[in-house]
Structures are given as C-alpha cells and as structure tokens.
Design goal:
heterotrimer, A alpha/beta, B mainly alpha, C mainly alpha, A: alpha/beta, Rossmann fold, 2 domains, 8-stranded mixed beta sheet, 4-stranded antiparallel beta sheet, B: mainly alpha, MetI-like fold, 11 helices
Amino acid sequence: MSAAADRPIVSVNDLRFSYLRGGAVVSALRGVSLDVQPGEAVGLVGESGSGKSTLARVLLGLAHPRLSRIEAGRVVIDGQDVTGFGPQQWRTLRGHPLAMMFQDPLTYLNPVMTVGRQIAESVRLHDGGVDAAARVRELLGLVRLPESVATSYAHELSGGMRQRALLAIALGCRPRLLVADEPTTALDVTTQAEIMALLADLRQRLGMAMLLISHDLGLVASACTRIYVMYAGRTIEWGSTDGVFKVAAHPYTAGLLQSARVVRDAAGRFPTIGGDVPNLSQPIEGCPFRPRCAFAFAPCVQMPEPVAVPGDREHAVRCWHFEERVRSGAEVTRAG
Amino acid sequence: MREAWARFAEQRAGVVGLAFIALLVVAGAAAPFVLSHDPAALSNDVMVSPSRVHWFGTDELGRDVFAGMSQGVQVSLTVGFAAALAASVLGILIGAVAGFFGGKVDLALMRFSEMFQVMPSFILAAVIVALAGPGLTRVVGVIAILAWPQVARVMRGEVLRVRQLEFVDAVRCLGIREEAILLREVIPNAIAPVLAVGTLIVGQAILLEAALSFLGLSSADLISWGRMLNSGQRLLFNAPWLSFFPGAAIFLTVLAFNLLGDAVGAALDPKGRRR
Amino acid sequence: MGRFLLARLAWTVPILFVILIVNFLIIHLAPGDPVQALVGDFPAPPGYLEQIRHDFGLDQPLWVQLLRYGQNLLQGHLGYSFANRQPVLELILARAGTTLVLMIPGLIAASVLGVVLALAAAPRAGSAFDSGITALSLFGYSVPIFWLGQLLIILFAVDLGWLPAQGMTSLRGSATGWAYVRDVAWHLVLPAFSITIFFVAVVARVARASIVGVLSEDFITTAMAKGLSRRTILWRHVLPNAMIPVVTVIGYSFGYSLTGAILVETVFAWPGLGSLFVASIGNRDYPVLQGILLLSAVMVVLANLATDLVYALLDPRVRRSYGVAHA
C-alpha cells in the first residue's frame, strides 16, 4: 500500500485473451496494453466488436473461468499480478480497488430487491464497521438521488436514476478506479450530460480514477485526459486526448474523427469507414485494419510495432504508414 | 425454416424420440397383419412368464402380452394425437384472436381460458366417464377442452411478438383487412412454438387415457396399455410382467413425445440458450 | 398490495361459480333419471325417491335446481352416500386425513429436493452432473405414476421383501401409540416415494431452467462485480428471482395432488380419498364422486390463489397490477 500513489492502479501488458463461443474460439483480445494512474480519467474507444467490453470484464475477473482464458500478457492490479487468478482470488479483488458500472441499468439491477439493499450490500462488503443505512443515504446524496430511492425497486425508477443507482453501488465499494462500460449509451442526451457531469464531480471529490469505455468519441474526448483507441482486439493508438485528436496518427482514428463530425462531404454523404470489423474467431494476418485502410501497403502484412509520435512523448501508434511518413520527414499531421 | 430443421437434427434426444414414435406408428398400423399371436385370442398358456413363444408373457386368460401391447399402440396414439389436435385448433384460434386484437378482447379471452383450468382434467374425465359411460371420443373431448388454454397462451404470446414486427404494419399500409392480416401473415409466423406445446400435450393425453383405463374407466373390448395395467394390478405378485411391459410402453412413449417436444421447442427458439 | 389482493380475491368468485355450475350439470350426464343417479344402485324406499326429487328440486326448472344446489353446498349438504351410509361431507372429511398423511410429506419432500437438485445442477450447466439431473427429471416427469408404484412394489415388496406392498397398516396390527405410528410410517414409504419421484422431476425441471435463466441475467454480473461470494449471490440474488416460476409449479402440484392421490392409493390400497373415489365408481355412488370433484376443484382454486399471493410477495413488479398471473 505504501507506493500506491506512484504506481498505476491497473496495468495491462500485451494482453491476449480468448473465449469459446458456440464451438468456435474467439480471440477477443490480441495485444492490449494500457494503464491507469491514480486519479486520472482514461478513455477506451472502439467500435462494437473491438473487444473493449471484453477488456473491462477481464479487468474485473468477470470472464467465464472455464470457457475463456488469458493466452499471453499480464494484468497487474495495484501492484499485484492477477493474470493467473482463479475465481476465488478474483472475488477478493472485486469492488476494491476496481469497481464497475454497466451499460443498461435496468437489467443490471436486481428486480426484486430494493435499490437501498443493493447499495448496502456493497457497503457491508467493503466498508466493514460503518452504519450501512447512513452510508447508503450518504451515497444516494453523492449521486444526487433522493432518499426515497432506497426503498424503491428498479422498475420504479427512470433510466437516469437507475444509472445513478448503479453508480452508487459501485461507489459503495470505495473504489480507486471506476470502470464505466458504456455508462450513458442507453440514456437520452440530456441525461447523458447529467451523468457525465456527475462523474466528473465525483472524480474530483473522491480522487477516483476512471476508465471510460465507449464508442462515442465525443463523450470520451470531453471526459478523459488520455485515451486508447482499440481495433479488433488491439490497442492501436494511445496518448493524451488533445494529442490523439490533433494528430490522429492511425488511419482508423482519423476515420473515427471524421465520422464523428457528422458533416456531409461534397457528394452529400456522411463520412464512414467502409468495410466491416474483422471476425475475431478467425486468425488475422498482420494489421487488422488493412482491408479497410486507404493507405495499406506492403509492410502491412506484418503487425506494426508501436512507434512514438514525434513531439509528444505520451502519444504512440501502431502503423507502418505513419512510421513511413515520419521517416520520410513529412509533417506530423493527421493521417490522410 | 431450414435452420430450424438443422437445429432440430442437432438435438439427438429429440431425433431419438421422433424415431421411436415413427416406430410406434408403423407398429400400430402393421400389427394386425404381422403379429404371430392374435391379441384377443384366449389360450391355455395362462400366466406364462416371458418366454420365447410369448415374448412378454401371457395374462390370466392366456392372451399374449406382446400382441396386446402392439394393438394398444393404436388407442394411445389415436387419443394422443386427436386430443392434441383438437386442443391446438381451439387454442390457436382463441390465442391468436386474443393476442392480435389485444385490449378488452384479450383480457376477456384470457379470463375465459382460466376458467377451463380450475378442474383437474383427470378427475373430471373420470367422473364424466363414470357417469356417462366409457368412450374414446368423450375422453378426447375432455382432454381437449381442458388443454386448449395451454396452447392459447403460447399462441397469444407469439402473436403479440409477431404483431410488433414491422412487416405487419407494412402490410397494413397496403390496406388489407385486419382479419386477413391475422390469418395470412401473423398466424403462420407465430405457429411454430405451438408445435412444441402440442407435442407435450400428446404425452399428457396418453398419460391421462392410460390412467383412466388403469382405473377401469375404459371400454372393455378395447385393448389399451392402461387396461393391461389394470389387470396387472390384481396379479402384481404372481405375474409382474403384466404390469411391467405395458407400463414401460406408456413410459417410453410419453418420454419420446416429451423429448420431441423439448427438441422442437429448442430448435425453434432463436435465442437458443447454450447448454 | 392491498388492491392486488382484492382484485385477486374478486376473481375467485366467478371461478367458484363456474365450478358450481359444472359440478351441478355433471350429474345430469348419467343416463336416465337423475334421481336414480343421485341415489345410486341401492334399493330405496319409494317415498324416498320422491323426497329426493323434492329436496333437490328436480321437478323444478334447471336454474331453480342450481340455486338449490348452491344453497345446499353452502350449508354443507353434499349429498348422502348410500354405499357408506354417511353424508358425503362427513365421509370425505373422515378420509381426508389419511390422504393428507400420504400427500403432504411426499409433496414437501419433492419441492425441497427438487429445488436443491436444481441449485446443484444449474451452476454446473452442461456438465455431466447437470445432464444426469436433467435426464432424471425428464424420466420422472414422463413416467405414469401408477406404473411407478407398481414397479416399486415389485422391486421392494415382492422381490426384496423390505417394505409392505399394500395398505396403511399391517393386517395383523392392533398396534397403538408409537408402534402404530411406526407401522404407518413403514407402509408410507413406497407410496410417498412414488409421489415424490414424480413431483421432484417436475419441480427440478422448472427450477433448473429458471435458475439457469437467472444466472445469465445481467444483474448477477453486477453482484459479482461487487465482490460477493458465490453462495451469497446464489441465495440472495438468484434464488428470489428464480423461485417465481417454481412457486407456480409447486402450487400447481399441490392443487392437482388429488389426481395423484387417486392413482397412488389405488396401487397401494391406501385407504384415503383416492380409494374412496375409485370404490365409489364401482358402487355408482355418484354423490361421492361429485363431492370429490368439487373438492379437487376447490383445491386447485385455493392453490392458485396462494400461488398468486406468494408470487406477489416475491416479485414487486406484479403488485402493481393483476395481469394474467399464471404465465
């Protein structure tokens, strides 16, 4: 616990992970590296099928013990190597230091148990001697929910309220890192904004770190100081939010930014990235983005190694094309 | 449709069930022509235990058990299929109307169906037969009348699901009348799960008919498995084979229908829970 | 909750009415004179037939008869059994206890065991153990309960001679007190076992499917993410949610238990309501049959009511409105 403030709360190193589904082996994670320092807000961006939710589950040991396994790489939580952990060991680690918040609050709350009791469960588990009832009220206040919610059931609350309730459950564990998996996707835009504001406020007050997982670039941009971009089970670009947005070194990142702007091109079409995400139950040769990439060329049959973006120590990308451009001295601008 | 067949074929248990039932149908149809012993023939070999001549033994009147059982197939399968068919027709109609038109019609029909589920079908059937005399039609009728709500519920659920689908609105926009939409578009798409329930009802019907016969509430000239168990009961200590084989036949038949019904249900369930 | 209760109880009234009508009409199914049907096969003094006709208003229009029948019922007049020389109600009450001794332990054992087996099997879904339990419950559920009884007799009473084959007490028995209880208990084993095997299969099947379903629900992930132990999750999150359909099936089993009683008592010569029913068929003692039919229907209604109430207690979503409860 002594050097806790110096080391990352979570550190993932070239993680490869697969699971069995319907008889086929799906390699959901093919080389993911990320870390989250205490107190920071990190974003993880990717399309559905990129493996980002899988990563979240792996971080909390929620993957099915028999139907999945870590093929290679390491996951270190609070200095402890948890890569080989079994279900029993994971149990002691969940909630603290990592807690998780999920996408669809209605299905993630127990329908026959009052919300208050569900929050109290977290409290009793992680906050031993404390007066549970009082702490539940305190948590409800933190997430800006009225006390009456404690005796309500999930189906009696609105979407936004449910999400706050889930947040309260997570906070009851006194987490140092909150993994939020698409926390606002199921909500309307106004509620989205409220929840994000609440999260920002809580982070500041509690000094809590956050890993925000989303497909929504705008959301991540406004909430996080660093981001990772994931594609087909790999982290392909990462760095400070500003840096990555300014210099979207990877063609995929550039494509995402283009699509996010929702501005029609000359022909009146919305920008999209052509093609589909690759099938993760099949092996992939080289860079997974190759089939959809406008800049694919010979070296792309090999998976690129990370290369630093000149002028920004934190920013790195895995792209031969970018490497080529840097080498040839081209100006460091957005790809394409 | 084809994927449903493929999924069905994967369920080995269901295929076994289907095969067994097919075997029974063939046996029942072929029995009169193929058997070496006449099922109704009395003989001097009274209460003989299973032997090479009489595979399953004989009863107290010297009748061959195996032959009797082969004929008994006819009663069981006929009652089973007839009852399930009748219940299904009623259930499909009422369930579809309830699900499609919704609102007050739905509520009224569902309440109505609940009224048919207040009496245990066996006891009601037994009392009816006790009072009015035995008769297969009667039995089939009672089973069907008390079983249709099961089908109606399933049908209603499916119709509710299908009617939300967009294509129904699309067809409606073409100006087709509601009844036609119900008949031609909704019902064909909703009917599949009814097959699963219907199959299970066949099993229930067979059990019920057997139970009635076991109590002696069936026509004495009709050879049925339950009836054989009735004689078997009296001779339990002396001739256990009289009870064992016919009972086993009932068990295996009902089992086959239950396996089939489950397999059909699983094959048609698009979400398919992983086993 | 209060409104739900009221609505549910209110619904019971028309149901009871329907039962009344069916029960009333059924006697008219008998060929010939309904009076003869009511009296059965027994020679009755001529004046008596007229009196019956008058008492039951059989010379009156049908709806008056129905009213009379209803009135009689409410006063506890279920008719008279000539074969047993007792009013039907008295007869039924006298024999009910014997049937209860048989059914209650069997059903309770089946319910508890069914849930326990499902709890053991469901988390191991797909394993050999689970497949075994699934197969066993499928078998138990397909087996004719009377044949099962016969098999048990053949195996345990005839072949092995461990347990008595028939009856509730030994023929020679004039045992009293503790010895009597032991004697009955010994006789109870096989018939109760038949009942348990059948209902365990039904309960286990539904419970297992339900638990497997709940285990794959998202809120279980939330519970896991909190760091709760498997046992806590199973007991506090899975069970309350999974028990909902199981309660329905247990209620159904209790409601329809008279059917099982009839069959099992016949096989084991257990002197309860079931045997009475079968004997009355032979005696053409129609009032008794009517009475037992009525009883069975009332049991179903009560069981359904109880089930719905427990359902509402377990699932707060149901309390808001009384929809179609037996889904």
